[in-house]
Design brief:
The complex is a heterodimer of chains A (157) and B (400).
Chain A (H helix, E strand, L loop, with lengths): L2 H12 L3 E8 L2 E6 L4 H10 L5 E10 L2 E10 L2 E10 L4 E3 L9 H11 L2 E3 L39
Parallel strand pairs in A: 2-5, 6-7
Antiparallel strand pairs in A: 1-2, 3-4, 4-5
Chain B lengths: L1 E6 L11 E7 L2 E8 L7 H5 L4 H9 L6 H15 L6 H29 L3 H22 L8 E2 L2 E2 L5 H27 L1 H7 L7 H6 L4 H6 L6 H4 L20 H24 L17 E9 L2 E9 L5 E7 L1 H13 L7 H7 L10 E5 L6 E5 H14 L11
Antiparallel strand pairs in B: 1-2, 2-3, 4-5, 6-7, 7-8, 9-10
Helix pairs in contact in B: 2-3, 4-5, 4-11, 4-13, 5-6, 6-7, 6-11
The chains are: A alpha/beta (157), B alpha+beta (400).
């Protein structure tokens, strides 16, 4: 199945759920869906189109919204499923029920962007330390790292 | 009665900070839990403040073993965004280094596998032979670890006739040695018996848990980005995807030994067909707003970078997914229902690659909550003691 056929089949199966579809390069497909259709789309991609492998999930801070891109792979193609959630209400549903291997990437998203992944099987922190101050999400664009002032014990001031 | 055994943050098999919590029933692992982040360097955030050229050398520092994988993955993505096409000679040199890196990484891993299985002679042999490929890399790039060969629009160093001859001569030595490793199992049945049936991962689990690289290929999934999504020169290079159907540590050894032979063929092909011409072209500094997904088959599996540009000389976002992270959920499945003595072997089998620092393993007694800090060397000794007493798996056969 080539890229155009995959896009057409996805459109036939999902209808209006697919907001945008593009194919910028060979074996690179980008689809955009609404967050409410996300899990249904992932299910269809896995069962009907054979995209059972999630390479990773990228988060992206684009000002008003968070863009979340699910990178799927299968031997003959690579598909990127994009969805946008508003920063004011950053909730997204977990896809672990469909693809259990996505758990680490969803936990990473929660840590780095402060997204809330609903129905996630395991919501503990993954990459940030346990004593990391709450409300600090490093990969948000407005977050800046400030190096704490170094104090030498016994040194001058 | 169940025990919980925390292992790490210092890694039991390799020298990497990761914390594992094992729930034990006797000496059988019933559940395993992974905690990461002891060495999180905030590299994705840092990349947003560096230019495209600086980021090549930044991504090179993600890993000390497969450094070239990350920088190549980033560079080929950045080149697409900057709309620059590297010349063919540059590409050949770039992927020559890539295959040499795969050889050194697999030889290193074979040694570690032998070490964890208590077969230290094998470890000494493979690491001695690894020096041959390290020397080639030093001759070609000037460096042993971070080759720094990539630049936007090509590579930084050319290969001359003398270097070519030297590499081809060394390749003969490496081939001979690898053929000897093929025969090892037949003459050393205890090695095969130690690794056969350990850390089993079924094909279904490997698919569901999104395993990559040799771990997936040992579970009979013919998944290799070089074949599936040919990047760079791989569309014109003949090679085979190596798989095994046993899904255990033995299978992972078999896959890697076979891949070594394939890599030698690729290196020979690249050197003998090295095209003439320049090695690099000039590249613009700014990239138009766009995005790209770059994939690369690193020695440990698929490496994927998502890069977004915003019109400036810096990336808007760089997302890096190294293959080891993808293999963690599969590792948990492999550890389940295995023995505590197999932890180092199973963990080493995915060839984990996070960063370096070794200290101790803490064993917690579930009943009293008492913590026991054990040195790694002690754990390895215990593991080997246990396997000396265990009956040999007489039916295990070396597949070569």
């Amino acid at each position: 199945m080539n890229d155009t056929e995959i896009i057409e089949k996805a459109k036939a199966l999902l209808g209006d759920a697919i907001l945008e579809a593009s194919n910028p390069a060979l074996r690179r497909i980008f689809l955009t869906v609404d967050p409410k259709d996300l899990v249904r789309t992932v299910e269809v991609l896995k069962k009907e189109l054979g995209f059972a492998y999630v390479a990773t999930i990228s988060g992206l801070d684009s000002g008003e919204n968070f863009e979340i891109i699910y990178h799927f792979g299968k031997p003959s193609s690579q598909l990127n499923l994009r969805t946008r959630v508003p920063k004011s209400n950053p909730h997204i549903e977990s896809i672990c029920a469909v693809i259990p291997g996505a758990i680490l990437y969803e936990r990473e998203l929660q840590d780095m962007f402060g997204l809330v992944v609903d129905l996630i099987p395991d919501s503990r922190r993954l990459v940030l330390p346990d004593d990391w101050p709450a409300g600090n999400y490093p990969l948000r664009k407005d977050w800046k790292y400030e190096r704490p002032v170094e104090k030498i014990p016994g040194g001058k001031s | 009665m169940k025990f919980t055994v925390p292992i790490g943050p210092q890694h039991p098999a390799l020298k990497e900070p990761i914390s594992l919590r094992m729930t034990l029933d006797g000496e059988i692992i019933r559940d395993a839990d992974i905690r990461l982040g002891y060495n999180h360097r905030g590299l994705e955030k840092l990349a947003e403040e560096k230019t495209w050229l600086q980021n090549i050398y930044l991504t090179e520092r993600i890993c000390g073993i497969c450094s070239h994988s990350h920088t190549t993955c980033f560079t080929q993505g950045a080149e697409k965004l900057l709309e620059v096409e590297p010349p063919r000679r540059g590409l050949y040199v770039r992927f020559l280094i890539a295959e040499l890196e795969r050889v050194h990484s697999h030889l290193l891993w074979l040694g570690v596998a032998g070490h964890e299985a208590g077969f230290d002679t094998f470890f000494m042999y493979t690491w001695r032979d690894r020096e041959v490929v390290m020397d080639i890399l030093e001759i070609l790039s000037g460096n042993r670890v971070h080759y720094s060969i990539n630049t936007l629009g090509g590579v930084r160093r050319d290969v001359d006739e003398l270097q070519k001859k030297k590499v081809l001569d060394s390749l003969d030595v490496l081939r001979q040695r690898s053929e000897y490793y093929f025969k090892i199992g037949a003459t050393e049945p205890s090695f095969v018996a130690r690794i056969a049936g350990v850390g089993r991962l079924s094909k279904e689990d490997a698919v569901a848990l999104c395993a990559v690289g040799p771990t997936a290929r040992a579970s009979d999934i013919p998944q290799d980005v070089r074949k599936d999504d040919p990047y760079g020169v791989y569309a014109e290079v003949p090679f085979e995807v190596c798989t095994a159907d046993t899904g255990d540590v033995l299978g992972r050894v078999v896959v890697r030994v076979k891949e070594l032979m394939q890599s030698y063929n690729i290196i020979e092909f690249l050197l003998k067909n090295l095209p003439d011409g320049p090695i690099a072209v000039r590249s613009p500094r700014r990239a138009k707003p766009n995005e790209v997904v770059s994939r690369y088959e690193a020695p440990r599996g698929e490496n994927i970078h998502y890069i977004k540009s915003n019109g400036s000389d810096k990336p808007e976002r760089l997302k890096v997914r190294a293959p080891t992270l993808a293999n963690y959920p599969a590792t948990v499945a492999m550890l389940k229902n295995g023995y505590i003595a197999d932890i180092p072997l199973i963990f080493a089998a995915i060839d984990p690659c996070v960063c370096c620092a070794e200290r101790a393993v803490a064993l917690v007694d579930g009943r009293s909550g008492q913590e026991n800090v054990v040195l790694m060397s002690e754990l390895r000794k215990q593991a080997q003691e246990r396997w000396k007493k265990a009956p040999l798996k007489k039916d295990a056969v070396w597949p070569f």
